[in-house]
Structure formats: structure tokens, C-alpha cells
Amino acid sequence: MPETDFIDAQLTPATVNRQQKLRHTLLTVAIMIGLFALMIVGLVIERLSLFIAFLLAVALLGFLYQRTQSFKRRATEAFHDSRGTAITLLILLVAAYPIILNQNPYLIHIGALSAIYVIMALGLNITLGFAGLLDIGFAVYYGAGAYTSAQFAIHFGTSFWLGLVLGGLSASLFGFIVAWPALRVHDHYLGLVTLGYGLMMNLLARNLNFLTNGTDGVINIPPPSIGSYSFTQSLQLGPLSLPFQANFYYLAVTIALVTAFVSYRLRQSALGRSWDAIREDEVAARCSGVNTRGVKILAFSIGAFFGGIGGAIYAHMIGFISPENFSFLESMTILVMVVVGGAGNIMGVAIGAIILVVLPERFREFEHLRLLFFGAALVLLMINRPEGLFPRLRMRRVLPAEKLAAMLTQTRQKTASVGRIKAQ
Amino acid sequence: MLFENWAQQIVNAATIGGMYTLVAIGFTLFFGVLGLINFAHGEVFMLGAFVALLAARLLQNVGVSAGWLLVPAMFLVASVFCGGVGALTERLAYRPVRRSPMLVMLITSLGVSFLMREGVKEFFPEGANPMAFPSPYMSQEARIGTVVINYTQISLIAASIVLVAGLYVLVEKTWFGKSMRATAEDIDAARMMGVDTDGVISNAFFLGSALGGVAGVMNGLYYLSIRFDMGWVMAIKGFTAAVLGGLGNVYGAAVGGYVLALLEVLIVVFVPQGSQYKDVFVFLVLILVLVFRPTGIFGRKPQKLG
Amino acid sequence: MQGELLRIEHLTKNFGGIHAVNDLDISVGKGEIVAIIGPNGSGKTTLFNLIVHLYDTTAGKIYFGDPPVDIARVATHDINALGVARTFQTLRLFPNLTVVENVLVGMSARLRCGPLHAVMQTPRTRREEAEAEAEALELLSLFGHRLISMYNEPAGSLSYANRRRLEIARALASRPTLLLLDEPAAGMNPTETHEIMNDIGDIHKRGCTILLIEHDMGLVEGLAHRVVAIDHGTKIAEGSYQEVCSNPEVIKAYLGSGAQA
Questions:
Q1: Which residue would you say has higher pLDDT here, A3 or C114?
Q2: CB spacing of B306 vs C16 below 8 angstroms
Q3: Is B101 on the interface with C (CB under 8 A)?
Q4: Residues 142..201 of B with a Cβ closer than 8 Å to A: which?
Q5: Which of C52, C110, C198 is closest, CB to CB, to A287?
Q6: Cβ contact (<8 Å) for C49 and B305?
Q7: pLDDT given at position A9
Q8: Residue C153: how many CA atoms within 13 Å on its side-chain side?
Q9: CA–CA separation, A396 and A393 (whole Å)
Q10: Which of A68, A277, B167, B264 measures 20 to 30 Å from C70, CA to CA?
Q11: Among partner residues C120, C148, C171, which is closest to A407 by beta-carbon distance?
Q12: How do the domains of chain C map onto residue ranges?
């Protein structure tokens, strides 16, 4: 019987010998260093025409990678097997970035900015990617975080670190507020409600001068400091002196990594499963005991929290914010980051964020075409590859082989006995 | 408040309400046949105005400047062009994602709206700046007491009423109207009954977009100036009007447009600094209606769950 | 009343003029298997939707538990927490979640650990998750090796019969005292129907009270202690299987709809 064969195949655990493990680790390391080098090259290229050639080459590589199933499978296997190494290497490479580029403070600044957007995109990823809630007014949260942190620092002299937490909490509150009307509407209506919310908040920010200083914005936001060490000082790493942007870079990147980690844990948790459930079938979820209201409110609040954190870092890094920074365009940008990167996929969203910070910077002359490209990208993507560059991963559980084997033998006996009864 | 001021405001509301109505009808049609909130519809409205401007310029260049030739020409060109654009968008961008989850369709329509708006901004000569719009009848007016109503307003109000009446005839009395209603009710059943649902949807998009384009021309004639970004505010207002009347309910959209215009007028008159916060108010109305009465003033059949 | 788990009194539900459920009185005792039969459209699924409060009642009360509590206004997920679980006539699984995860979602009402615990992976969380997974696997094994062998596969890739079984496993995950099964054997061939009948019997023996909507009369006859016949939202007969099926009203209601075992 075919089904018995299946069981037997599962009983023999996958052999992982040392040689295979070593091969996997080496492949992973090679791929990661290769991609990292590619990224550095892309950043450092001066001439625009060369950069476009580079982009085409990368696109071609990506396309070829998608086509070759065998390599794709081997690479994915390798990464899953050597996850610890991959993460350690990631942290090392990320830490090495400013050191490698220490002659180029502008690129370090771009790195920091990318990390900030990674934080915010991951926040939206929780709301949209995990819980499936269309929030197209996300700029409200990072505006809230930025303004809260900035105003507290300026008027009450709070330290950046406290301001960071306050910013996150204030943004969370704004997420909480919109969650309530959002609970009563679905799908497209939800998009409209969040859109309206974003527009309303932006308008209020422009007009409530006593809170936000209106369209003049808030200036002279103090940079973060640890004790007497201010972030505007250049960073000394032993014999090496890094430009001050490196301070912000390390701060943002650390928080981005923490955000990714928290996202990952949330996705694995019961809450993450509840989000999956309401995304797939809300009615069935409710009947299965999922508190859909509570779970949605959490999605909005947690996502907003990270938006606020990103906003606070941004405010203290740039030193100046205004309602312009938190417009519909910004909400759209973050939405595109999540959708293009791959809603629900943490790594995808992070990469989407980085791409959408770096590319507009490189193509600064074409700033006015940005929305045009977004539009084209969105339409093409939705028609051809709506899941984004990196589709959502399916959570697979790893049952210890012996346990599975025991269960299967047990249940196979039961099925056999039922079969016997039926035959009588 | 003096009666004359009221009357003046009502006239203004009637004019603007007509525009809202035409845009709202488009939204409600698209939602009815596809279940789609077409974010790009506001941009179609804008395209109508711009293409009418082009037509007017062209005609003026060949020496035509008579109002009674220019204005109908603008309406005609705008309605045909926008209808075509609407049907084309449906065919190219929305049909491929018709069976995808709602989120995908929404994001697609967002993308299309960007393409249209930014496309005009980039490629229309001087697109990024506000453009003067010819309005041959603006100076001619009629007076009833102190109430001033210019010919443009008269024609706009008349045009909206005619169009809505025509729509009524179309929806109720014609085979096309019946097929549209059937498709909106249950697309699979309609198809099994022999209705060419793809055709119906295309036509619905043509119709809704054409009306949107006409509204764009009206907007230009009324305000004498158009901008590449005039679309999205109108989209929100038109959509609010459609929701007020009940999404999917064409007559509701007609009523909703005028109701919204009336509400706006009331805000401007009674709330201090009302004209500044007019738009915020509309957003608020939208959110409130969506949350508390998503089926609109008239209500519709509730959704089945189990 | 003693030993009564569910009591429905004068339950009425109108949908804009249509009486989907009309002054219904039904009672289910602890440990009973009660079957609801009736032609299509007679309001049976609406009844289930009302019990779990997916719809608001127009009138009437729904008492559940001992001591009885009126759950007509209680939130759906809380009703699940109180011990009522259901399956769906049209099968509503989470197709992209794995088999095991579908069952785990069924435990949502019981899992106590919140997001903060989850992020920090406290010992309490790890224990709770491990226990949940063990219980989920045990529930899957109720159906032999069929579901267990697919535990990591997406639910949407299962065969139709397996998906029905999985839905029952998910319902059982919330440890219900009352299980509402909406046409569990719909679309199954005779072998599968026989198996599911045995499975439901086993579930009943584990201590579950069952309220069952079914068209397959063989299954009804084999399982139900009592049968309630409904037509156009009204109860037209109640009693043992023999009594109800020989009732002329019931036969009249079924004439023309062709629903036969």
C-alpha cells in the first residue's frame, strides 16, 4: 500500500554527517560573503551607467537563481542546516560594514537610514504580513515616535534612551486608537480607514502648532549620548577612527536585529499562529477560540511600536523633523518595502527596505519619478509575483525522529485494527 | 442666515454634488461588479480634465472658440477617452488579479493610481503646475435676487441630472443594465446564465470611468484650473459619497453625492474656519460611516457568514 | 433540568423577512448524541451559527453548561473557551497552515502565554508549547496514521476526507464538552462514512456531547440517541430515529428534495 511506504520513509531519520554539515556551512558562508561583496560593490560604484549595468547583472543573477531548482534547493538546505553560522556571520558582516567603508561617511549614513527603515518595515510586516491587516497610514506611527521623542528631549531634557521607549509607546497608542474602528471593517474598507487616519493625523500635525510646531517642524533635536559620549563624536575602535555616522549605524542596526529577532519569535508563537489563522479564515479562527479583536489590536499596537522606534531614531539622527517626513508618500514607501520584499517574510522585508532606501538615493536625480516607479513596480508585482521577492515561509516543526517513529507505529497498528474490523 | 445666502450655498452644493455623484457612481459600479475599491478612479477624473484641456487647446488652435462647440467637444473627448482608459486598466491590470485575494487587487489599483498621476505630472507639458482651464460661460450669469448662478453652474447641474436619469434608464430598462445587476449579484451564476460577464465588467468600467471623466471636465469648468493631483481628494470624496449611499447601490451613489456636498456646505457655513477643515471633515465622515454604518444610508442585504 | 448541557428556548432568527429559525426549542442532555435532520435550507446551519454567536439572535435564549449560562450574547471565542466547538458544512480549514498548526489553533482559547513570554521563550512558554504539540499529535492520531503522517504538510494538500477529519481534530483541540458537527460525512464514500461514524463514536466515548447535522441516514441511525427534524426553521418532529423517520410531516418535508440515506 502506498501509505505504508510513506510511513516507512519517514521512520528513517535524515542522516546528517559531519562532512555534509561542513559542506553546508561552507556554501552558506560563501553565498553570504559573495552577496555582501556584491552589495559593497553596488554601493561604491560612482558612475550611474555602470550602476545600472550592475543592477541588470544582479537582476539576471536573481532570475537565474530562481530558474535553477537544484541549486536553490541545495542553498536553502545549506542555510537551514547552518543557521547558527549564518546568523553569526550576518552580525559580523553588518558590524564590519562601517569599518570597510570608513572613508565614506555618506555610505555609513545610508546604512543607518536603511536600518531605520528596516525597523519600520518590520513593524508594518507584523501588521500586514503576519496579521494580514492592510494599514496604509503607517507614517502616523513613526511620526508619533519621532515627535514624542524629539519634543520630550527638547522640552523636558529626557535622554534619548528614554525618549526611544516613550516614542515607541506613543506610537503604540496611535496604533491602539486606530485598531478599534479597524476592528469593525474588513479588507478594502480597512485600507480606507487607515488611509483616512493617516491623512487626518498628517493634517493635524500641520495645524496643531502647540504640539508639533506645525509646518515649521522641530529643529535642533539633540543627538543621543551615553554618559559624556555624544553620538556626534567620531567612533574610536582601537586604532581605527570611524566617522560619527557609525554611532547611529550601530545603534540602528542593533535595534533592527532585535526587531527581526522579536518578529521571528512572535511568528513562532501562539500569537503568530492566531495571526495566521485570522489571515486565512477569520470566522473559523473565531470559532476555534481565537480572540480576533485582541489579536488584531496587538498586531496594530506592536507593529506601530516598531514604527515609533524607527521614527525616534530618525529624529535624533537627522536632528530635524516636519510633517513632510510623515506624509502619505512615506506610508506608501514602507508599504512597497513590505510588499516587494515579501509580506510575512522577515528577511524579505528587510531586503525590500534596504533596496528601497538605496535605490532612490542612487537615483536621486529621478526623485520626482519615484512614485511612478512605485506604481509600475506595484502593478507588475501584483500581476506576476504578488508574494514578493521572498515569499512567506511555511513553519515546519521538527519532531525528534524517535518520537515520530513511535507515534507512527502506534497509529499504524490502530489503522490496521480498524481495517480488520471492516473486513469482518 | 439670510435666505439668499442659503440659496446661494444650495446652488453651489448642487453643482459640486453633481460632480461627487458622477464620481461616486463610478466607484459604486466598480465595487458592484468586481468587489474592488478602485483607487485609480480619482486619477481617471483628473485625466478627464487634462484630456479635455488638450482637446480645447487643439480646437482653439484650429480657430474654434465658440462655447457651444468647445464644451460638448470637451465632454465627448473626456468621456470616450476616460471610458477607454478605464476599460483598458480593467483588462490589463485588474483582470489578471481578479481571483487573487482582495489585498492584491487593492495594491494593484494603488499602483495604477500612481502611474496615472505621476504619468501626467511627468509627461504632460508643464504637468506639475496648475493649468488654466477654459470656461466659456463662466462670465455669463443669471440673477435671482442676490443669488448669482452662472451659466456654467446651470449646465453642470443640468448635465448631472441628465446623466443620472440616463443611468437610471440604462440600469432598469436595458438588457445591459440587467446583466450588470446579475453580475453584481453573483458573477458565477450570471455567467452560467449566459451573461458575458467579462464584457459586462468591461462595459461597467467604461461607463463608470466615462462618468468620472465628465466630472473632471466639470471640475475644470467650475474652478477654472486643474492640477495633476486633483484626483485623490476627489477620489476620497467620491468614495465617501458612494459609501454614504451604500456601496453597490447606484441610486444611493446619486443621492450620496448631493448629501455630501450639502454636508460640506454646512461645515463651511457653521464651523469657524470651516473651509480649512472641510477635507478633514470628509475623512471623518468616511471613517464614521465605514465603521458605524458600512451599508450606507439605505442599507443593503447583510453578508452571510456560516 | 438535570444533566442538560444545552437548552435552546424559543430561538428565532429573521433575515429581513425570512424566518431562518422560528421559535425553536431543543435540549441536549450530557452525554447524548442528538442529530438534526431536515431538507436543505431548513435552518440547520443557521442554528449552529446562532449557538456559537456568529449571528445575533432575533429572539430566544441559548443555555449552555451546568449551571446553565445564556450564551446568546457571549463572544464566539469565549463560547469556544466555555466548551463549545464546531465544524463547518463547507469545510473551513486554514489551508496554508500545516496539519499540526491547524490543530494548535484550536487550542487558542487555552494557551495562556502571551507575546511577551513568547519573545523571551520563558520555561513556562516552552513547556506550554511542548504540551500543546504533544496533545495535538495525540488528537491527530485519533484518526490512525492518516493525519499524523502528514503533520507538516499544508492542510490544503490533504484529501477531502482527511480535511474533514482534520477539522474535527481542530475542534477537539479546544477540549469541548459540546461538539457541533455540521455534516461531517458530506461528500464521503461509504467506507469513509463508516470510518467517520466509528471515529465520532470514539469521540463520544471520550466524554463529548454531540449535536450533529447530517443527511446520511445510516450515520444518523447508527449514532444518534435522539433525532430532531427541522423544516423552514421550525421543529416538526422529535424522538428516536424510527419515530422521526416514520413521521408523516417529516416524510412530506423531504419529498421532492431527494435526501435519502
A1: C114
A2: no
A3: no
A4: none
A5: C52
A6: yes
A7: 34
A8: 14
A9: 9
A10: A277
A11: C148
A12: 4-83+176-254
Domains of chain A, by residue range, sit at: 17-100, 106-410
Give this complex's ipTM.
Answer: 0.91
Question: Does C88 contact B306 at a Cβ distance shorter than 8 Å?
Answer: yes
Chain segment A80-119, per-residue pLDDT in tens = 778 888 899 999 999 999 988 888 899 999 999 999 999 9
In chain B, % of residues over pLDDT 70 = 93
Express each pLDDT in A129-165 by its tens digit: 999 998 989 999 999 999 999 999 999 988 999 999 9
Where residue A289 falls (left for φ over 0; alpha for ψ -120 to 50; beta otherwise) is: left
Q: Which of A10, A265, A287 is most worth mutating to test chain C (most C CB atoms within 10 A of its CB)?
A: A287
Q: Does CATH number 3.90.550 belong to domain A106-410?
A: no
> How far apart, in Å, are the Cα atoms of A144 and each of A73, B15, C246?
43, 39, 70
The set of cell numbers assigned to C82 is: 466555555
Distance from C-alpha of A338 to C-alpha of A344, rounded to nearest angstrom: 8
Tracing cell 477560540 back to the chain, one arrives at A289
Residues 6+ apart with CB under 8 A from A210: none
Closest approach of chain B CAs to the CA of C18, in angstroms?
Answer: 12
Reported as a single tens digit per residue, the pLDDT across A35-86 is 899 889 888 888 888 888 888 998 898 888 888 888 888 887 788 778 888 8
- Write down the CATH superfamily of domain C4-83+176-254: P-loop containing nucleotide triphosphate hydrolases (3.40.50.300)
pLDDT attached to residue A15: 52
- What whole-number distance in Å separates Cα of residue B255 and Cα of residue B268? 20
Contact C118 A277 (CB under 8 A): no
Residue B7's closest CA among B155, B141, B148?
Answer: B148
- How far, CA to CA in Å, does B89 sit from each of A290, B83, C219? 39, 10, 53
Query: CA of A341, closest CA in chain C: separation in Å?
Result: 20
Q: Do C16 and B302 touch (CB under 8 A)?
A: yes
pLDDT value of position A421: 44
Q: Sketch the domain layout of chain B as residue ranges.
A: 19-230
Q: Can you read off the three cell numbers belonging to residue B112? A: 495604477
* C:60-99 residues touching chain A, CB 8 A cutoff: 75-77, 80-81, 85-86, 88, 92-98
Tell me the three-class secondary structure of B224-255, residue by residue.
Answer: CEECCCHHHHHHHHHHHHHHHHCCCCHHHHHH
pLDDT tens digits along C149-195: 888 889 999 999 999 999 999 999 999 999 999 999 998 999 999 99
Contact residues on chain C for B306, CB-CB shorter than 8 A: 45-46, 48-49, 54-55, 88-89
* Residue among A166, A318, A306, A334 nearest A248 (CA): A318
Cell of A378: 506595484
Question: Measured between beta carbons, which residues in chain C are less than 8 angstroms from residue A6?
Answer: 149
For A242, the 3-state DSSP assignment is: strand
